[in-house]
Amino acid sequence: MAIAERLKMARKMRGISQRELARRAGVSANAVSKYERGLNVPGSAVLIRLSKALDVKIEYLLRPDTYSIRLKAPAFRRLEMGAKDEVMVKERVRDWLERYLEVEDLLDIDMKSEFHMPLGYPIRISTIDEVEKVAEKLRHEWNLGFDPIESLTDLLEDRGVKVGVIPAPDTFEAITFWYDSTPIVAVRDGVPGDRQRLSLAHELGHLMVLPPEEMDNDEGREKVAFRFAGAFLVPESTVKRELGEERTRLDLFELHLLKHKYGLSMQAWIHRAKDLGIISRKEYHRLFDIFTEKNWRQREPGDQILPEEPRRMKRLVMRAYTEEIISFSRASELLGQSIEDFCTIEEEKHEGFPIEICH
User: Fold this and answer.
1) Phi then psi for 10, rounded to 5 degrees?
2) Which pLDDT tens digit goes with each residue over 77-117?
3) CA nearest 176: which of 60, 263, 89?
4) CA distance 278 to 272
5) pLDDT tens for residues 220-245?
6) What does the alpha-carbon distance between residue 92 and residue 162 come to, in Å, rounded to a whole number?
7) Integer CA distances (angstroms), 93 to 106, 174, 184, 185, in order
8) Of 355, 339, 357, which is closest to residue 347 (Cα–Cα)?
9) How far apart, in Å, do the first and last CA atoms of the chain sit?
């Protein structure tokens, strides 16, 4: 990929205009336009200024287009996302995935051998209630039983799904697509763990379930994926064991405790109870009226579940560095952040563990 395309990608990742990039880099807007169209190539001094203005390393701007990643028709989970934000998210996902694929190549890891779709999936259902049995079947095939899933991110990574956490606007939740024969899932950074887990399970639903023919549209696929997410995280028999077969009312603190046991949000528990006929629609609406009135829809009350973190890519970068396959600066580029920032965050997270790359 030429520098022109890299400049355009980096600018879109930052969500800024050519004029704003020109202002930050101390060049003219006309010059930036020519750079991005490949009509002119910035000299080394200007390239350094552009990289600083874009908050990317020089290596990023010089990185070749080895993988031809094109996000043409991904499955988006989003609210009212504008075209500018959508482009920004796609470019950030593409950058993350390029770095991921690059470190795998450096270690001679065959990406195609990592993921195997379970036999017979995705399963086409006839009614939305059949989602319950599909989710239970997948848990059985993956030997999960009916216990809470401690880390959904680790589970997906162990099964060969590439999982990323991407800085993104509030209008974005998650994205799913295929690269060759490997499923790729990216979710938004900075959300509580229960919401993140629901997004991950939702995206897994897009991969594993096909809606009934009459529901095979965007709205129908979303409904099926959402139902699958709840059923996969907490199967029907578990819900009924915890809540009972029939209830007139649900207590919010009861739901809060269950959220912490299973990593499923209180609101998703309410949906599960309604979908399985445990509570009436009247009770369902009463509970959601409370969440709306208290402004709890985006962030539920009480102590939060910490978000999960994809760790495989990080481990691969550490492996490549300690085996002296890559340099200190290359490790920084592949991690997508300076080693100084990486060390500060990781050592604080792991109570001062002396990470070798940091010393």
Assistant:
1) -65, -40
2) 555 678 888 888 888 998 899 999 999 999 999 877 778 88
3) 89
4) 8
5) 999 999 999 999 999 999 999 999 99
6) 15
7) 20, 10, 10, 9
8) 355
9) 34
Residue 282: the pLDDT is: 97
Q: Which of 289, 273, 275, 307 is nearest to 131 (CA)?
A: 275
CB 37 within 8 A of CB 4: yes
What integer best gives the mean pLDDT of the chain?
90
Tokens coding 135: 């989710």
Q: What is the mean pLDDT of residues 11-31?
A: 90
74 CB-side CA count, 13 A: 27
Q: Tell me, letter by letter, the H, E, C secondary structure of the chain.
A: CCHHHHHHHHHHHHCCCHHHHHHHHCCCHHHHHHHHCCCCCCCHHHHHHHHHHHCCCHHHHHCCCCCCCCCCCCEEEECCCCHHHHHHHHHHHHHHHHHHHHHHHHCCCCHHHCCCCCCCCCEECCCHHHHHHHHHHHHHHCCCCCCCCCCHHHHHHHCCCEEEEECCCCCEEEEEEEECCEEEEEEECCCCHHHHHHHHHHHHHHHHEECCHHHCCHHHHHHHHHHHHHHHHCCHHHHHHHHCCCCCCCCHHHHHHHHHHHCCCHHHHHHHHHHCCCCCHHHHHHHHHHHHHCCCCCCCCCCCCCCCCCCHHHHHHHHHHHCCCCCHHHHHHHHCCCHHHHHHHHHHHCCCCCCHHHC
Alpha carbon distance 313, 101 (integer Å) = 9
Task: Give the Å distances, CA to CA, from 71 to 62, 129, 179.
Answer: 21, 31, 9
- pLDDT attached to residue 66: 66
Length of the chain: 359
- pTM, to two decimals: 0.86
Each residue of 248-279: pLDDT tens digit?
A: 999 999 999 999 999 999 999 999 999 999 99
Residue 354, amino acid:
P
